[in-house]
Specification:
One of its GO terms (biological process) is N-acetylneuraminate catabolic process. The chain is α/β, with parallel strands linked by helices. It has seven helices and ten strands. The chain is globular. 47% of the residues are buried. It binds fructose -6-phosphate.
Length: 243
């Protein structure tokens, strides 16, 4: 694990975007990105968009796979991850919408949709660089504490803490879906590079557990200690509990 501590959120985004752009440059125009939603990677996507605007990054032939999707939220819902990824990734990074995918959280057969998603990632040649955030309880993707290290894309029940944290995106706390389809920890670990971003004091405990704690299913992010190419980019507030 390489740990980079930055003075503020904007520099977290700049450093993480530079790392992603480097992987894309090495992988070639058809690079495969893995993309997280939530607040953490927004600065990274903004900096990637600047590189695209400046002409130093071209993602028109690249592909992207979202980490996760709520179950039961139609694609047209503004908080479905399909919609969030379109707004924050596909459009600003000028990607081809046909090359950007999210798991199908409205599929009649969710187990089959999960299998299909794994196959689609495999058929694309695997993920070159996976952008991640981390939950306050240590989750990555929506692999909540207790998730199997070998897990693949599947349906998960969101932890109460995760639903409470995500209530800010919905009119009422009760509107937050209870289930999601998420790439598994095994799926995430297959990415050739991982770039995890975290900002703010509310992430400090999770960051310390991920980086310095034991590798344990109680903190799914700690599994990244076993990834050969994981870069953790945090601001000073999220780094306060690091030794
Ligand atoms: C989002 C995801 C989650 C978030 C995490 C942090 O696709 O998979 O793991 O990265 O919940 O969310 P924020 O960044 O909103 O604090």
């Amino acid at each position: 694990m390489e740990i980079i501590i930055c003075p503020d959120v904007d520099s977290v985004g700049r450093v993480a975007a530079a790392k992603v752009a480097q992987v894309v440059a090495d992988a070639g125009p058809q690079a495969v990105l893995g993309v997280a939603t939530g607040s953490s990677p927004l600065a990274t996507y903004e900096h990637l968009a600047k590189l695209v605007e400046a002409g130093s990054l071209d993602l028109t032939q690249a592909r992207a796979f979202a980490l996760d999707e709520y179950v039961g939220l139609p694609e047209g819902h503004p908080e479905s991850y399909a919609a969030v990824v379109r707004r924050t990734v596909t459009e600003p990074l000028r990607m081809d919408p046909a090359r950007v995918q999210t798991p199908d959280g409205c599929a009649a057969d969710i187990a089959q949709a999960a299998k299909d998603y794994e196959r689609q990632i495999r058929d694309a040649g695997g993920v070159d660089v996976q952008v991640l955030g981390i939950g306050g309880n240590g989750h990555i993707g929506f692999n909540e504490p207790g998730s199997s290290f070998a897990s693949r894309t599947r349906i998960k029940t969101l932890a109460a803490a995760t639903r409470a944290a995500n209530a800010r995106f919905f009119p009422r706390a009760d509107d937050v879906p209870r289930h999601c389809l998420t790439q598994g920890l095994g799926t995430i670990m297959d990415a050739r590079e991982v770039v995890l971003v975290a900002q703010g004091a509310q992430k400090a405990d999770a960051v310390a557990a991920m980086v310095e704690g034991p590798v344990t299913a109680s903190c799914p992010g700690s599994l990244l200690q076993f990834h050969e190419h994981a870069t953790i980019v945090v601001d000073e507030d999220a780094a306060v509990h690091l030794a």
